[in-house]
Amino acid sequence: MIKSTVYDCSLIELSKHHHEKGNITVVENNLTVPFDVQRTYYLYDIPGGESRGGHAHRDLYQLVVAASGSFSVTLDDGSVKRTFVLNRPYQGLLIVPGIWRTLDDFSSGAVCLVLASQKYNEADYIRNYHEFIVYKNNGIK
């Protein structure tokens, strides 16, 4: 059985350095995030009413940040669901492996920044919810 739960995922306060000319937030490997960032990508121009995500990862850790605007992230471990609203660029949602995620409710102009612990690997994805439940219950990789 894959034991990760939605309670292993948490909001992380990122350092916010205020300056009269604008703020800056710094993210550093193994200091700010508990992994080495191997890939960074961002989602933007998401049409109203659309969802993103809808999958889980076997081994990948992610830190999800609302770099601009807001959106909600619903996490599901096969038993419990938790929803987080991300709307501050100095907060990130740490998502551990073995958690199904769905991103919804994107505001106009929202930018979702994702820092990932691994390079893209299609074999790491679980894209079918039934297969995810089997994986969680039986530990099948």
TrEMBL record:
Domain Sugar 3,4-ketoisomerase QdtA cupin: 8-136
Stored InterPro entries: QdtA_cupin_dom, RmlC-like_jellyroll, RmlC_Cupin_sf
TM annotation in the entry: none
Protein name: WxcM-like domain-containing protein
